[in-house]
Automatic annotation (TrEMBL), chains A, B:
Keywords: Hydrolase, Magnesium, Metal-binding. This is Inositol monophosphatase. It comes from the Bacteria. The keyword ATP-binding does not apply. It comes from Enterococcus moraviensis ATCC BAA-383. InterPro entries: Inositol_monophosphatase-like. The lineage of its organism: Bacteria, Bacillati, Bacillota, Bacilli, Lactobacillales. Its cofactor is Mg(2+). The keyword Magnesium applies. SUPFAM superfamilies: Carbohydrate phosphatase. GO terms for molecular function: inositol monophosphate 1-phosphatase activity; metal ion binding.
């Protein structure tokens, strides 16, 4: 069960975490490499995650947590209530740009997305909503974007997949009105919620998409792994989300074109 | 000769044009194709250009004008004082996103950039400055970004050049910390001025880079066509701008690598 009380709590935690991040940016950020030279983590990622986990443990001690950093990055099952957290989505942007990064929190129950929060910290724009609740930016309710065809919209892309034409991503990009590369899954999913982009193709871990899925599903977008199979929430996967019309076109005319 | 009076006038024109654009976005925007289905122009591009040209003709009747739309897109020479205008840079974003576009104005004298203005309309951020004047965002003076190597920064790219590895753009991207694609030259040049990105590679017309060059030169960035030759201001050209270190690396290790 989720509740209005839980929504308000999460919003308060996010505001507090964002205030901490904004102050931290003015001080020293310690950057480390994870799997390779462009896979970064900072002390702020870790401290933000610790802050959020402490809150969840205090208020919802029986819940499970899946989160990007420090040993929380796998989970046995999605049974019960599960919190899925990316403390800083777009760490490269956080380090290089000091903007264009998000905090993301999702609440799932038995594998079903109930609440999603994507917070663009430096713009102070919190996109949030839930199953049958609608989608909001801060206090303002958003309108569901129109369903548009691939040829009628911009699409967010992972640059590598586009450049190497992985799963025809290059061809999909050329069939669209153009690709955009922001370096942050949260920013790309926000662009879909606003109606700016018709879709997003990338290579993502569950904390990159969990919150966004709740929101884009509420707005009627389709999503899956790039081959059309359900996302597993258990590993990095090639990810596709798009307007219903563009999703079908991408599946039939590109990914599964024989 | 440019003057403080001219700077204030241009800032006033830009504010007036931006107010017109913001109102127009709420009303009907008429979109037309130019050379192909992704090369768009709107009535707002044309009306904004007409507004700016009227101002220049009134206040500086002897000056020449080079501008993107409606027959102003070539100029016989850069002799004397020349205004170079892009009324809406990033028209695709303007149409699809209703944000991430700029108004750009440059003042050149005998081919030398004197003043540059890049106005991110929806963020209400005016980046401006001039030769020996410094670079400002609204009223705040910016600090010159550090010189960084290619491997230490993000780089803005034209998606097509990256995907097709034109002039080794794909390899350059892989040698950097990552590429970003915004679809707007003004946004990319702003990212360099802020120190967010170390460079930008694209295929640009003079009105796409004229204002930005004045500002990035003031901050010590290097620029040229992609082969290292001076930009001609007379046609669409492959464009390179980068921090001094990254510029030399891109020229020696990628573009002219034998």
């Amino acid at each position: 069960m989720t509740s209005q009380k839980m929504i308000v709590e999460i919003q308060e935690w996010l505001k507090e975490a964002a205030a901490f991040i904004r102050v931290s940016l003015a001080n020293k950020v310690t950057v480390s490499q994870k799997s390779n030279r462009t896979d970064l983590v900072t002390n702020i990622d870790e401290e933000t995650q610790t802050f959020l986990i402490k809150k969840i443990n205090k208020y919802y001690p029986n819940d499970s947590i899946l989160a990007e950093e420090k040993g929380f990055d796998t989970i046995e099952s999605l049974d019960g209530r599960v919190w899925i957290i990316d403390p800083i989505d777009g760490t490269m942007n956080f380090v290089m740009e000091q903007e264009n990064f998000c905090i993301m929190i999702a609440v799932y129950e038995n594998g079903v997305g109930k609440l999603g929060f994507i917070y663009d910290v430096m713009k102070d724009e919190l996109y949030w909503g839930g199953k049958d609740l609608g989608v909001f930016v801060n206090d303002q309710k958003l309108q569901q974007p129109k369903d548009r065809a691939l040829s009628d919209g911009l699409i967010g892309m992972n640059a590598y997949m586009y450049g190497k034409n992985i799963y025809a991503a290059g061809e999909i990009g050329h069939a669209s009105m153009g690709i955009r590369v922001s370096g942050c899954a949260g920013i790309e999913l926000i662009a879909m919620l606003k109606g700016n982009h018709i879709g997003y193709i990338s290579n993502l871990s569950p904390w990159d998409y969990a919150a966004g899925l709740v929101l884009i599903e509420e707005f009627g977008f389709k999503y899956s792994d790039i081959e059309g199979k359900p996302l597993t929430f258990s590993k990095r996967e090639y990810f596709l989300a798009a307007s219903p019309t563009a999703y079908t076109q991408i599946q039939n005319d590109f990914v599964h074109k024989s």
